Amino acid sequence: MSRPLVAILAAAAIVGFGPALQPAPARADEAVAFVGATVYPVSSDPIPDGAVLIRDGRILAVGPRDQVELPEDVRVHELGGRVIIPGLVDTHSHIALSGRPLVAANRGTTEATDPVTPEMRAIDGIWPGDPAIRMAVAGGVTTANIMPGSGNVVSGQTAYLKLRGSSVDEMLIKGAGGRPLPGGMKMANGENPKRSYGSRKKAPMTRMAIAELERQLFVDALEYRAKQERYLDQIARGDETSRPAVDLGLAPMLEVLEGRRIVHHHTHRADDIRTVLRIQQEFGHRVVIQHGTEAYKLADELARRGVPVSAIVLDAPGGKHEAIELDYRGPAILERAGVSVALHTDDYITDSRLFLRSGGLAIRGGMSEAGALRALTLTGAEMLDLADRLGSLEPGKDADLVVLSGEPFAVRTHVLETWIDGEKQFDRSDPEARLYQTGGFQVSDRYPRGVVP
Amino acid sequence: MRFVACALGAGLVLLALPGSAVAQPPIAIEAETLYTSGPQGTLSNGVVLVRDGRISLVGPAAEVEIPDDALVYRAKVVTPGLIDAQSTVGLSGLYNVPADQDHDEKSGPLQAGLRVIDGFNPEEPLLRWLLAHGVTAVQVSPGEANPVAGQAGVFKTWAPPGSGVSEFELRFPSALVFNLGETPKSTYAEARRAPTTRMGTAALIRGALTEAGEYMGKRSAASRAGSKRGGEGAQPPERSLANDAFALVLTREIPALFVARREDDLETALRLGEEFGLELQLADATEGYLLADRIARAGVPVLAGPVMERVGRLETMNASFENAAILAAAGVPVLFRSGFESYVPKVRVVLFEAAIAAANGFGFDEALDALTSRAARVLGVGDRIGSLEPGKDADLVLFDGDPFEYRSRVEHVLVGGELAYSHERPRTR
Q1: B336, B239, B320: which is closest to B283 by C-alpha?
Q2: Do B308 and A354 touch (CB under 8 A)?
Q3: Cis peptide before A101 (omega within 30 of 0)
């Protein structure tokens, strides 16, 4: 076989699994007006018979239909009886790092050979062709914090991604000058690191050792920073000096110390959460409590200290010790105490297609409906430092939105369309795309269509 | 207006505490919407009267006289207690440590002699979690590791404190459980012991059923000979508890419940069922929608789900939320099971499973039937539970809204006429 042909076939094989199957996007420079729907901007009250106007990937206007002026060349998307919410922001997901199917060949969440690996970068393991990405988009997720796993005490640099595009470079959220924003830093305490290394008789085998390893990394980072500062001083003074060696693990920890990179800390039990807070107090970094199964037990303390919680909502407790005190009322208790609460999927632990359901179950536990919708959008964006661009429908923000068939937390509601940066990335009326929402995309040619309208 | 159950009179409240052994006054449950899952269908403003743990009367509020001394509950929506068609709950515990995992006897692939009744833990906290979601009965089943897993039984999720396993039991054995697909062949792979392939799994099952057939033949030959010649002649085979269990499925006294996910595994189950004349049931049936007509023609019920099963393992890659709807449209009776969860969450809740199916083409009525009357009928406990009819156990769930909405809450659950769970005093651990 000739080389070019092999290349073409290989390219087809790659594309065949992913973006090429997606519906042709509307032109980004075209103005699109979504009108007639009930619009939940999240940053303000719901608007019955509202309108959202977008162009060039940004939101231009949001308001009651009769108050939004539409340009001449606008394409009008009539959505009477439907609902529009901002694109969902998932603060904790593992899709694309551990691709589906979850066979060994596709698994790659944790580099479990060393408990402290801040040098690992999620971007080096992202598989843009993972069907789980399309499933998540079919569930209304538009932005996700893709995290290395919790088997390590420090497992690496997370990636804040838009769920569109065919390469990780396209997916990464960019800041000024088109440079990718730093993601977060994933850390974990409790059972998982203990289990991962204890079973091999290596540290950490205890919670004490987990805390020691984490603390030591911060101390090392401070020393590294001091060394760098000394070097810069010496240069400024014109002293003869040599540059300190680059440390790929400590470099991102400097961003953590500066508050530019947020620590996303897997932690469940109340005492483990308190350990996270203790270390945070020592080093002053910014931290998000991830999972926080027992966070409700120290809601007032978290509120007082202004530490946010990204909570997981599960069907049932158990499966591991640190998850047995799961309580549906947890997010509600945190909300009432004044803690900033987001929700997340931890996909593959829960399914991104059912992310809205997590909000529904939080409401079952007493959370306000407005709080639950915020927890899936704007509050999550805040925890990723992206609230200036994402999480609500406001002029100037990214045109990430979801069209629903009905009210956000009704079981019968389906995601009908998902738009990211002004382009439609999911459409339930497309029979191929629909199978990423219902399941069955691998047997698309044989799927019994039309049985369910 | 928000309805909460109210007890008339402080003394009666005390009597209604879970676990009270004192003789119960009659109980009346008033529902804005009463789903009986029985001959009376759905009643708006319906009433259920309960005496001595059983339903004594069901009817419209206008026609039912509530006794003066009755303890009255009111709720927006009332359904029969919900039934989980197959789960390892009670065997596979909350903590997920060896000390509380008793679902898989991994010492050998053929475990027909195992009886869940010998491992069911009535104190299991996950039973109370299910109860808090309205699940009052579960077909408890051994796990998924072995080609022949053992004998399942149907149990309540609650009985008054002090009760033993027998008070929880509704029916035992209710089925002999078989597993096909990925799990059995991976369980013994490391030990390089059969089965390590799907063929191996099927061969072990076929071999065991064949041997049991021989055993039964010898047994009946011996018994014929014995009755003819006053106890002399053909010797009965050595008694085998495993073969006794296989005999129950070969004589169709209990169903053969096959857990299978991939289309070809489902076909293997149908093939084995036909070969040995089994009363077949299919569990999970992830790809059932690809052969819905064949399953329907075979007249086999499907214990579906979980629909929230992760699309992830090779054999669950094609899981579809529409599976139940497509199977039902072909005429297959569908139930829901929570199955087995190896990690977090440790159990699924059939109320949520059915809700997802209902929202994906299965519909509300089908979903409720699947969790109540149909489940009771298929599991062979329809004389006791599954509908609100006079004479049946007073197992009821009181909701504050649509049972399948995530935002609705279970306010009270009555089991055998006793308050087993109350939203006001949740005790799920």
Answers
A1: B336
A2: yes
A3: yes
Contacts with A219 (C-beta within 8 Å, 6 or more apart), sequence order:
none
Residue with tokens 């400097």, as numbered in its chain: A254
**Which of A134, A154, A155, A153 has its CA nearest to residue A144?**
A134
Classify residue A451: in a domain, yes or no. no
Nearest to B289 among A101, A448, A453 (CB): A448
Q: Please, are residues A404 and A437 in contact by the beta-carbon 8 Å criterion? A: no
Give yes or no for residue A116 having a pLDDT over 70.
Answer: yes
- Clarify whether residues A424 and A308 are in a common domain: no
CA distance A165 to chain B (A): 22
Q: Do A440 and B289 touch (CB under 8 A)?
A: yes
Binary contact (B320, A351; C-beta < 8 A): no
Residue numbers in B near A440 (CB within 8 A): 289, 318-320, 322
Work out the percent of chain B whose per-residue pLDDT is above 90.
Answer: 88
Say whether both A363 and A345 belong to one domain: yes
Contact B177, B141 (CB under 8 A): yes
The reply to whether residue A363 touches residue B321, judged by beta carbons under 8 angstroms, is: no
Instruction: Pick A440's closest partner by Cβ from B94, B320, B348.
Output: B320
pLDDT in tens, A379-409: 999 999 999 999 999 999 999 999 999 999 9
Name the closest residue on chain B to residue A346, using Cα atoms.
Answer: B344
Contact at CB, B314 and A101, closer than 8 angstroms: yes
Cβ distance of A348 and B310 shorter than 8 Å: yes
Domain count, chain A: 2
Cα nearest neighbour of B315 on chain A: A101
Nearest chain A Cα distance for residue B410, angstroms: 10
Average pLDDT, chain B: 93
Concatenating the DSSP letter of every residue in A308-338 gives: -EEEE--SSS-SSGGGTT--TTHHHHHHHHT
Q: Which region, left, alpha or beta, applies to residue B284 given φ > 0 means left and ψ of -120 to 50 means alpha?
A: left
A409: nearest CB among B308, B312, B407 = B407
- Chain A nearest C-alpha distance from B356 (Å): 7
Side chain identity at B191, as an amino acid letter?
A: A
Q: Which fold has domain B10-80+388-422?
A: Urease, subunit C; domain 1 (2.30.40)
As for the ipTM of the complex, it is: 0.92
CB contact under 8 A, A315 and B347: yes
Q: What is the span of the domain harbouring residue A147?
A: 88-383
b/e per residue A18-27 (b: at least 16 CB within 10 A): bbeebeeeee
* A 276-305 residues inside an 8 A Cβ radius of B: none
pLDDT more than 90, % of chain A: 92
Radius of gyration of chain A (CA): 23
Comparing CA positions, the residue from A48, A84, A58 lying closest to residue A415 is A84
If we measure between CA atoms, which residue out of A163, A162, A170, A129 comes closest to residue A10?
Answer: A129
Q: Give the tens place of pLDDT for each residue, A55-104.
A: 999 999 999 999 999 999 999 999 999 999 999 999 999 999 999 999 99
Q: Is the peptide bond before B26 cis (omega within 30 degrees of 0)?
A: no
CB A341 within 8 A of CB A375: yes
Question: CB contact, 8 Å: A325 with chain B?
Answer: yes
Mutate to test the interface with A, among B326, B340, B346, B429 (most CBs of A within 10 A): B346
CA–CA distance, A405 with A412 (Å, rounded to integer): 8
Q: State how far residue B267 is from chain A, nearest Cα, in angstroms.
A: 17
Q: A79 and A175: one domain? A: no
Q: Looking at residue A330, which CATH number applies to its domain? A: 3.20.20.140
Q: Beta strand B396-399 with B334-336: parallel, antiparallel or unpaired?
A: unpaired
Please give the helix or strand (H or E) that residue B249 lies within, else none: helix B241-250
Q: Is the pLDDT of residue B9 over 60?
A: no
CATH code for the domain defined by B82-212+233-378: 3.20.20.140
Indicate yes or no: CB of A451 within 8 angstroms of CB of B95.
no
